[in-house]
Amino acid sequence: MSAKLDHGGEDLVENHEINVTPFIDVILVLLIIFMVAAPLATVDIQVELPVSNAQQQPRPDKPVFLTINKALELSLGNDAVPRDGIGRVLDAATSNDRQQRIFVRADKAVPYGDVMEVMNLLRNAGYLKVALVGLENAAAPAAAPGGTP
User: Are strands 102-106 and 79-81 parallel, antiparallel or unpaired?
Assistant: First the structure.
């Protein structure tokens, strides 16, 4: 048990203690919010993306990801999409906004011709704004084959 003795002085004594309880409460609430929101912002289809050294562009609030996996199957988000119904599915996902950018994710094992075929399907469906998704390359770009180092 402690007691504070009053010496009768009129000077106020400074309190050197900081109450960190509200700060800890705010940090814990933010942690819970991020733990709940982070899994909702990802796509669960596993693809091995090729590496790119292009400048990263800002990401929209609700991007539309069209994925091409190794088996050449198409997926919009986590749902499989038939090739002949891609326009209908994209119209439903974008609310018929054909100016919205479609992000194409393709496994690096997918041949270039198959990626172009999907891009042609997008163009035929009226979606002309297409972005290719890749991983960032932290290393400097290598010299072109057959070129001088």
Answer: unpaired
96-119: pLDDT as tens digits: 888 888 999 988 889 988 999 999
Bridge partners of 131?
A: 103
Contacts of 53-62 spanning 24+ positions with Cβ under 8 A: 53/136, 53/137, 53/141, 54/134, 56/136, 57/131, 60/101
Q: How many residues does the chain have?
A: 149
Collapsing DSSP to helix, strand or coil, 65 comes out as strand
Residues 47 and 67: beta-carbon distance below 8 Å: yes
Asked if residue 66 lies in contact with residue 105, where contact means CB atoms within 8 angstroms, the answer is: yes
Cα distances (angstroms) measured from residue 109 to each of 24, 28, 50, 100, 142: 47, 42, 9, 27, 21
Long-range contacts formed by 134-137: CB under 8 A, 24+ apart = 134/49, 134/50, 134/51, 134/52, 134/54, 135/49, 135/50, 135/51, 135/52, 136/51, 136/52, 136/53, 136/56, 137/51, 137/52, 137/53
